[in-house]
What we know:
Blueprint: H1 2-26, H2 35-39, H3 82-89, H4 107-113, H5 122-137, H6 141-145, H7 151-154, H8 162-171
Amino acid sequence: MGDDMMAMKKSGLKWVGMLALVTAVAGCDTSKGIGRFFAGPATGAGPDEFGIVPNKPLTLPDDLAALPEPTPGARNRTDLLPEHDAVAALGGQPARLDSTTIYSGEGALLAAATRNGAAPEIREVLAREDAQYREENGPLFLQRLFKVDTYLQDYEDQTLKARSANDLMRRSNVKTPSVSPQSER
């Protein structure tokens, strides 16, 4: 009976060990952080090739005393700025992306946009309201478990239906630009 008891204990320990191993492996979530570059996104399509951005080559400045103090979270001289590069490639002025100056061509647009007033804290208000809405209307347990993206479903009631809005405007004798043909799907 002693040998049978030892065999049962060993068998039980094997099961506990296997369960612990399965639990540990199941907890290895590679959807965030460095692991996603190796394991790929949850879709299994492979690594995120756009997540890795090479830096500009390091260069020695002419005057080391002219270097700014390091600031945590601030941009580095070797950081790539894809938005700035895109604006430059399209013939724009990338420096305007970092500027808060209102240029002459923007005055009329800003006047029209703020004709009914503007709330300076609108971004914070919208972020707070959106967080509350997403908490109340977020994905269900199984959707979270299987990482189902419910963004479009959550905001479907708030989405402008462009074609029906255009038809409504035309029925109200409001001139509207042409609409792309309806796809036949």
